[in-house]
Amino acid sequence: MNITTVKKLSFIEFLEQYPDGRGIFELVDGEIVQVEPTRAHKNVARFLMFAFNDEIRRLGLDYIVDKDIIIRTVTASGKEQGRNPDVGVVSSTLWNSNVSTYGAVTEPIQLAVEVISTNWEDDYVDKFDEYQRLGIFEYWIVDYLAIASRTILGSPKVPTVFIHQLINNKYQTQAFKGADKISSPTFPEINLTVEQIVAASQFSKL
Fold first, then answer.
1. Staple partner for 75: which of 4, 79, 193, 206, CB 3.0–4.6 Å?
2. How is the beta sheet containing 111-115 ordered, strand by strand?
3. Sites in the chain below the pLDDT cut of 50
4. What pLDDT is stored for residue 206 in this prediction?
């Protein structure tokens, strides 16, 4: 659902007009766009958020994990976007440097997770470019339903988690499938497999 706007909005105008309490929204091409994830989608995001938080607490890491961190990104053409990753991990030092402000950040966060929906090209192409351009250190694409193209997933298509690590300003990518244990630069001791992440969706029970 798009909320009609008189003119293309800047990131600041997007924050000022954000329809608080009415759902999750992003700024895309100057317009406020509502994001409507399924319950299965939310289950996966919640599972990962709890897993990250467990690691942060267990190891005493300087991170905060949240599902409502709005990020200012910029496209290759210089257009401002407002992105809201399904899960975001940010330095607690950065986050708490100005606790009186709202949840939006302009600095690169440590880790962003996007759980794939029907508009999967946004995550694989647009957000990939924007997050890389911003300098987000680690970017997960969680394709728990294997809905991207065979060009990306291979054949046969199976659920895959892609982890992109920023090295020399470019993302280097690892793909994990099935019983593969996730390897995360931010959480190197995390004990997760793709099968566990897929099972968290409860999709087979819907």
1. 79
2. 63-66, 87-91, 111-115, 138-143, 160-167, 170-177
3. 1, 5, 205-206
4. 39
Q: What is the pLDDT of residue 167?
A: 97
Cβ neighbours of 179 (radius 10 Å): 9
* Residues 164-175 pLDDT 10s: 999 999 999 999
User: What CATH architecture applies to the domain 37-205?
Assistant: Alpha-Beta Complex (3.90)
User: Which are the contacts of 88, defined by CB distance < 8 A and separation ≥ 6?
Assistant: 65, 66, 67, 69, 71, 109, 111, 112, 113
User: Which tokens is 72 given?
Assistant: 């200012």
CB atoms within 10 A of CB 32: 20
Yes or no: say if 116 and 144 are a contact pair by the CB < 8 Å rule: yes
CB 116 within 8 A of CB 145: yes
84 near 63, Cβ under 8 Å?
no
As a whole number of angstroms, the distance between CA 87 and CA 197 comes to 14
Report domain extents, the chain.
37-205
Picking from 131, 157, 132, the residue whose alpha carbon sits closest to that of residue 144 is 157
Structure confidence at residue 98 (pLDDT)? 79
